[in-house]
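Margin note: ligand = guanosine-5'-monophosphate.
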Amino acid sequence: MPDRRGLLIILSSPSGAGKSTLSRRLMAWDPTIAFSVSATTRRPRPGEVDGRDYHFLSEEEFKRAVAAGEMLEHAHVFGHFYGSPRAAVQEAIEAGKDVLFDIDWQGAQQIRNSALGLHTLSIFLLPPSIRELRRRLESRGQDSPEVIARRMQKSWDEISHWDGYDFVLINDDLDLTERRLITIVEATRLRRIQQPGLTEHVRRLHREFEEMT
Ligand code: ADP
Ligand code: 5GP
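Resulting structure:
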C-alpha cells in the first residue's frame, strides 16, 4: 500500500481567471501530480493536442462513454459536452498519486458527491475584478470576440458557485496565488484520511510502548 492515498484536486473558476496557468505551475512544482485529461465534444483550439489537452470525441462517442459508466463526472458547458474519464483517475490515486482536474462547478459537485468525495480537495479561483477577467480572456488571444463575449456572459454563472468549494483564492498576484495553492495541497496531503499507513505506525508505537513499560 502506498504511504498516502492520492488526492483529487479540483480547480474551478470562470474562464480566463487562471486555471490552466496555475495547473501548469502546480505540476511544475510536483511533476508526480497527474492531470486528468478531459473528454470534450468541442473542436480543438490552435495548438491543442488530442490526448494531451483533451480527448476530442464526437457526440456519439461521448454519449457511449457516459452510458458505459466510463465518466467520473460529465457536464454540458458552453454548448459542448465535457467529462472526466474514470479509469485514469482510479489508476493514479491507487498508486498514491494526486490527480488534478480543471473542471466546472457541475463536475466538482458530482465528484464531491461520489465515492471519492472524501479524498477531494476543491479550490475556486476568483478574478480580482470582472474588468481584469475580460482583459485576461482578450490577452490570451485564443478565442474570437463572439466566444469571449459568450464566456463573459457565463462567468457569473460559474462565480455564483464559489461557496461550494473548500478553498477560494483571488488570483491577483500570480506568484502569491501559486504559493497559496501549494500550501493548501501540502496541508491537505497530511489529512488523516490521506495517510493509510498511520494505523500500522500507531500499532507499532503501541507494541514498542508495551515492551518498554
Ligand atoms: P483559464 O484556464 O481559467 O481559462 P488561463 O490560465 O488561460 O485561464 O489564464 C487566462 C489569461 O490570463 C492567460 O493569458 C494567463 O497568462 C493570464 N493570467 C493568469 N493568471 C494571471 C494573473 N494572476 N495575473 C495576470 N495574468 C494572469
Ligand atoms: P475550455 O473549453 O475553455 O477548455 O473549457 C470550458 C470549461 O469547461 C471550463 O470551465 C473547464 O473547467 C470546463 N471543463 C473542462 N473539462 C471538463 C470536464 O471534464 N468536466 C467538467 N464538468 N467541466 C470541464
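The mean pLDDT is 95.
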